[in-house]
Amino acid sequence: MKDDLLLGGMEGGGTKFVCAVGKRTGEILFETRFETTTPDETLGKAIAFFRRHSPEAIGLACFGPLDLDPRSPTYGSITTTPKEHWANIDVIGLFRTELAVPLAFDTDVNTAAYGEFRAIQGELVSSLVYLTIGTGIGAGIIIDGKIVHGLAHPETGHLRLPHEKTRDPFGGTCPFHQDCFEGLASGTAMAARWGTSAEDIPDDHPAWSLEAHYISSALVNVILTLSPEIIILGGGVMSRQHIFPLIQTMTLDLLAGYNPSALIKQQIKEYIVPPRLGKRSGILGAIALADAISRE
Amino acid sequence: MKDDLLLGGMEGGGTKFVCAVGKRTGEILFETRFETTTPDETLGKAIAFFRRHSPEAIGLACFGPLDLDPRSPTYGSITTTPKEHWANIDVIGLFRTELAVPLAFDTDVNTAAYGEFRAIQGELVSSLVYLTIGTGIGAGIIIDGKIVHGLAHPETGHLRLPHEKTRDPFGGTCPFHQDCFEGLASGTAMAARWGTSAEDIPDDHPAWSLEAHYISSALVNVILTLSPEIIILGGGVMSRQHIFPLIQTMTLDLLAGYNPSALIKQQIKEYIVPPRLGKRSGILGAIALADAISRE
Lengths: 296, 296
What we know:
Two copies of one chain form a homodimer. The first copy, chain A, is α/β, with parallel strands linked by helices. Chain A has two domains: 7-108 and 279-294, 2-Layer Sandwich (Nucleotidyltransferase, domain 5), CATH 3.30.420; 121-275, 2-Layer Sandwich (Nucleotidyltransferase, domain 5), CATH 3.30.420.40. In chain A, 36% of the residues lie in helices and 18% in strands. In chain A, the strands form two sheets. A five-stranded mixed sheet of chain A has the order 3-2-1-4-5. The A-B interface holds A 65, 79-80, 127, 139, 141, 143-144, 146, 148-163, 176-177, 217, 220-222, 224-229, 254, 256-260, 263-264 and B 65, 79-80, 127, 139, 141, 143-144, 146, 148-163, 176-177, 217, 220-222, 224-229, 254, 256-260, 263-264.
């Protein structure tokens, strides 16, 4: 295995793109970031960057929703995004005509989950759930070392949860489901409910106990469905680290001693954790995807 | 691959055990069933049956909770069941001292899920969720052709769901969580809420619309978490087949057009379905587990 193989990664977000070229050890040699404008201009800059540094495989992470079904004629495209100019853009097709290297393609959050998985893989973990709680809520799931896709990709941000209507009459902000998880607990929901953006709400405000409650309800459902070996919570809202102990306690309370919580209880502080890679999960995950495809 | 290899399967339930020996094609040659009494007597009967017919591998499915972690010193045991005499019984250990053949071990519901997976595998499905809704509610999940275990095993019966308290003031029957999925929608909950066992509630009773609502809420959460390629609903409550169209419609309504529902919407009648193997999912799943382990 050549450790000095050059690998490329792209983290394509709705407001900015990050592109990097580095080694499979995670060492980054070149990196650039630019604003997300039109698809031609933005993807053109990314392609020019990779041409300059000639990686031998590239992992492409992109905001979604994406068509990730390799059997589909539109595989590798953004599908129905409301973002102007970007609906139905064939991301992988554009790269393929310009760069003759293996390409991996996945959602931003799946890629971040994979980055985190690779960062802790030495600890014999084979499954994890990565949730990002920011403007929206998204999830990436790894089972048996692989990103879970199924029919499409997880949309765990939209779980239906018990809505504490007496304590929290706020109706929710999700345009699809009103008071789903994202509708009750995203940064957008917090700002709408409290009239202050999440980053400006003080640590001792009751907003955080309610926020921790909804996040814990979602985690209980994820644990009961998948019993993942570790849960990683990232995103803007989770940068408020004082909320972790609240979530750890409330998740155990809501599990109510139910299997498999004996194991979880013993190590709750190591079970629900912030990202090891901080804000770098996405770009390092994209390079890890390139690494995986270069070995196929 | 020898198609005439003899394989054994055991479906160990709380009230009865079924043991069978057959071929990897699913053809059963010998079968016996007996009441669940003490562990010694019950497992003794199973072992005697397999001794008589000499299968070359055996799949053991058992009621749980089970220790399924191969790294655990108590791997292969029943753990904390309230069932008298059965807590901490080392099922796989007993078989291992008596029969020198490869043994697979899993929960009853995981095994049934695997049986269903093998029954539809020809259709290029690689993931499914199997829910059994009867006295209790359990789930088995297959991803990428393998049973999902994670830290322990899924306990999807205990999902937290929005409780329709205005329409349904009933408090729920779950001794751990009161109004979780099982507490609101198991056969036990139906009987407690309506004063009549589910099998005696007429098709046009409002109980079925409420039941379909809770099942659909749970399915929405499972779909948003895993986007499985097919969902199979078995168990006593689901033998009331008139509830399938209600669940199919309500699940789409609750997804509210959200991705990946476009795909699901086109084929909802083939997406949420009864078990292909009817009541035979468990025992045929156990034989399929034996088949899988005989190939390792």
